[in-house]
Design brief:
This protein has six helices and no strands. It has about 180 residues and is mainly alpha-helical. The chain has a domain of about 110 residues. The model has no long low-confidence stretch (mean pLDDT about 80).
């Protein structure tokens, strides 16, 4: 379990650092009064950061991760608490939080639209050996025969070799009988 958390954290750490730094430092430029810079940052910079991180993560890792969508809203909520953005209206802050989540998700979806996944990008499961070997159809499966192999023609008349005599058969049977006794 800890290995999964560590690998997930290692994958998301650059995005956490980038979004955290930007969401916590950009509000310093806004000042205490509402002006054009405030709207540019909240309606322009923050959504682009969230959208860009979602797009970049999906482009690089070839997978979607919903946790990445939660990073921007969490850092926006922290900066809203730190810089007093909540004084205007909690509803506005909640709308921004939802909007930044949606922007992160749209970034991931935009990557899928722009760069569709090819078969080489997707991870393929290794092929397993079948439990039983496949049946071989003898009629369809013609193996090359050795050059010295001469099959008899089943349609031809075969004459039996009648050169074996009764004495030969007795000698063979006695040889077999002697071997069993040894």
């Amino acid at each position: 379990m800890e290995d999964k958390i560590e690998t997930k954290l290692k994958e998301l750490l650059p995005y956490i650092i980038i979004e955290g730094a930007l969401f916590l430092l950009l509000p310093l430029l806004m000042g205490t009064q509402t002006n054009a810079v405030t709207y540019v940052i909240q309606l322009g910079a923050f959504p682009l950061i969230s959208l860009g991180c979602g797009f970049h993560y999906t482009f690089r890792k070839h997978k979607k991760d919903i946790i990445l969508c939660f990073i921007a809203p969490v850092f926006y909520a922290i900066s809203a608490l730190l810089y007093g953005m909540w004084r205007a209206s909690w509803v506005t802050v909640l709308i921004y939080i939802a909007a930044y989540f949606i922007c992160g998700f749209l970034g991931m979806a935009l990557c899928d639209i722009i760069k569709p996944r090819s078969e080489s990008d997707t991870v393929k499961a290794p092929k397993l050996k079948p439990a039983r070997p496949a049946r071989v159809d003898v009629e369809k499966h013609d193996e090359p025969r050795p050059a010295d192999f001469k099959a008899e023609d089943p349609d031809s008349d075969v004459s039996l070799d009648t050169s074996t005599t009764d004495d030969d058969i007795e000698a063979i049977l006695s040889a077999i009988h002697n071997r069993k006794g040894q």
